[in-house]
Amino acid sequence: MEKRPPTLGEFLIDNQNSFPYATGELSRLLNSIRLAAKMVNHEVNKAGLVDITGAVDSVNIQGEQQQKLDVYANEVFTKTLVNREIICGLASEEEDSYVTVPGFDKSHRNKYVVLIDPLDGSSNIDVNAPVGTIFSIYRRVSPVGTPVTEEDFLQPGNLQVSAGYILYGTSTIMVFTTGNGVHGFTLNPALGTYILSHPNMKIPPNGNIYSVNEGKYAHFPQGVKKYIKYCQQEEGDRPYTSRYIGALVADVHRNILKGGIFLYPQSSQAENGKLRLLYECNPMAFLIEQAGGRASDGHRRIMEIKPTELHQRVPFIAGSEEMVDKAEEFMKEA
Ligand code: AHG
Ligand code: MN
Ligand code: MN
User: What is the pTM of this model?
Assistant: First the structure.
């Protein structure tokens, strides 16, 4: 009989020894994320049915209006990771500052901090389009047994222990890496289990999809404008196809599977673009690099940037290796 693919739970147990610093703590943490994601998935699925869509009054630190599901997803992940004392600290796109896990004696023995974008692409909720969750995990740098400090969160992406996303799309998939490749697990809603559906994901070195918000074209730097024109030119395998969902998770997931490039550049209106280094760009960069691709701010490798603040934004160009190389050539010229 053909062997059935493992569930995420089975995979975590089978591979625990290959995880960095395998003590079971990381498996426990990924297990908690898996559970929280199931709860958010349930809520996202019924968003059209109940009065949970639409904006609430609160405005987050980035000055954007939060959607109700943002608040819900943030709460679910906080409750699961903080209140159950799985980690020692959490930073969320939806919170002004990081959260220290209370319970000094026990929880400060925990090694890991989590950074999270609980609901990515939240404006898609109102129109039944895909949304996601993005997470990033680091080992704390401050001494175990003390409350976490900001330094624990301001680490460059190349020190990530694990990163992943959940895409709540036509099906729900959790994709993550612990530095040993990228693996995708699709949720079987009838059983409530995630099944390994995409082992060892690899992004094609080249592709024919470019994803960028072209409505901002007039405000982009010269190099980006020229690169976009290059994508549209009739020559060789070009013009490329344009695809932009407006949820980073969905755009990156598609590009990893099919090959392509995603750009959220700086503009004359936003000098560092829109995406957040810690909650969005670093985890996506880790996944894309683990899948064989590249992630850059146009000049530097995303994962080598030393963060200076929690909600820092950074231009983001990521995807198939040859396409990112090409885009960078245009940035240099400009
Ligand atoms: P979030 O919903 O977490 O604020 O993220 C939205 C982000 C990202 O998912 C997406 O790629 C980008 O915003 C789209 O921005 P524009 O509408 O400016 O293109
Ligand atoms: Mn986001
Ligand atoms: Mn968000």
Answer: 0.95
